[in-house]
Specification:
Distance between the termini: 45 Å
CATH superfamily of the largest domain: Glucose-6-phosphate isomerase like protein, domain 1
Number of domains: 2
Shape: globular
Strand content: 5-15%
Oligomer: single chain
CATH class of the largest domain: Alpha Beta
Number of strands: 10
Strand order of the largest sheet: 2-1-3-4-5
Structural class: alpha/beta
Number of helices: 14
Largest sheet: 5 strands, parallel
Radius of gyration: 20 Å
CATH topology of the largest domain: Rossmann fold
Order of helices and strands: HHHEHEHEHEEHHHEHEEHEHEHH
């Protein structure tokens, strides 16, 4: 039996010497999030009522988090904004913010929804406190009901599945499921847990495709992730996962933004991963996405895409030289939720494939090395 290292604290992930990594266990467990849509129906309806009141009063509606939680917050904004549009409100009334900015410059009144898987993010706790002091109704999506952030929020939406890896996966998808539940309640509907589970299981079925794309991208020195609309959240989260888990420099860009100078730094050592799954204005985004892939290929970059079946039909092997991950799409869930849930698992499976190609352990996000442990401790300084 190997001796437990002194630096391996009780709250650290299990230290494994070989795959399967803890991160993989968490990804495979994600269909178990489906019951949330029924278990959290009552608190989701309470938060939905707050959102509807704020929208009617033209008061701020803010969703915030840090790191993976910030990307999940961006996804929740897409879900809520889409639901409010369906109810006749104008688009763009829901705002995504990074927790620190929300803490330092809170919006007055309205609703503030914090996302914090562990409930201990100092920035998110401060943002909740600032929002409450500014007159906002506060809610928290978390897996830690006894953590500091929970004591500040008026409405708690607790997810039962805790991430056991520092490379968070459940922490991204769980708020999306909760956000979808709130969004459905805004429109007066409820989601079906069986439909959610079926969709998540279908997304897991693309694992071999994701592994093949990872093999096609193996060895690149930088990765650009690209998405528009709801796919922006997935592009940002993939960039973070790849840096955390694979230790590969990665940058997320908007679908149009990447074409305005960023490809100047790309060459044959670059990988480009494009997301095209948002059902809204899909044809226009797909047309522009083809331009991204075509330009990247001209520079010798290796290209891949995570797409829905209809988009896959228009992308040639030359445009997606490292391959495609064709994600499921379902009419049994709202379109934006279908997109965000499928890309969540798709990007995680792609990350896992890249992890296996690189031969690294993603679970500790490099904290088995003293410098990275010390850097993490230094980053925990109070924001005030």
């Amino acid at each position: 039996m190997s001796v437990k290292p002194e630096w391996l604290l009780p709250w650290f992930p299990e230290l494994r010497e070989e795959p399967p990594w803890v991160t993989e266990d968490m990804i495979l467990a994600e269909p178990g999030l489906a019951p949330l849509v029924e278990d959290l129906a009552a608190p989701a309806e309470a938060v939905a009522a707050e959102v509807a009141r704020a929208a009617a009063a033209r008061a701020p509606i803010v969703v915030a988090g840090s790191g993976t939680a910030e990307h999940a917050a961006t996804a929740v904004v897409e879900l809520l904004d889409n639901a409010l549009r369906r109810c006749g409100f104008p688009g763009g009334v829901v705002e995504a913010r990074e927790s620190l900015e929300a803490a330092l410059d809170p919006r007055a009144g309205g609703v503030f929804i914090g996302v914090s898987h562990g409930g201990r993010s100092r920035a998110t706790v401060s943002a909740l406190e600032a929002a409450r002091a500014a007159g906002a109704a506060t809610a928290l999506i978390t897996a830690a009901p006894d953590a500091p952030a929970a004591g500040v929020a008026e409405h708690l939406l607790v997810t039962p599945l805790r991430d056991s890896s520092f490379c968070h996966t459940v922490a991204y998808l769980a708020p999306i499921v909760v956000g979808g539940t709130i969004a459905a309640a805004v429109t007066g509907a409820r989601l079906d847990a069986a439909a959610v589970r079926a969709h998540l299981e279908a997304a897991l079925a693309v694992r071999l495709q994701a592994a093949a794309v990872a093999a096609g991208l193996a060895g690149v020195r930088q990765l650009l992730t690209v998405g528009g609309g709801a796919d922006c959240a997935a592009a940002r989260e993939l960039a973070l996962k790849v840096e955390e888990a694979v230790r590969l420099p990665s940058t997320a860009h908007g679908l149009e933004t990447v074409l305005h100078g960023h490809l100047v730094a790309a060459d044959e050592t670059t990988g480009v991963v494009l997301f095209l799954t948002d059902p809204r204005s899909r044809a226009g985004r797909a047309e522009r996405g083809e331009c991204v892939l075509r330009a990247a290929r001209r520079l010798g970059a290796r290209t891949a895409a995570l797409v829905t079946p209809d988009v896959a039909e228009r992308l040639t092997p030359e445009l997606a030289s490292a391959g495609l991950v064709v994600l499921p799409e379902t009419v049994t869930l709202p379109g934006v939720l279908s997109s965000l849930a499928a890309t969540a698992i798709g990007l995680q499976l792609l990350t896992l494939g890249l992890v296996h190609e690189a031969g690294v352990n993603p679970d500790l996000i490099r904290r088995e090395q003293a410098a990275y442990r010390e850097a993490a401790e230094l980053a925990q300084a109070k924001i005030r």
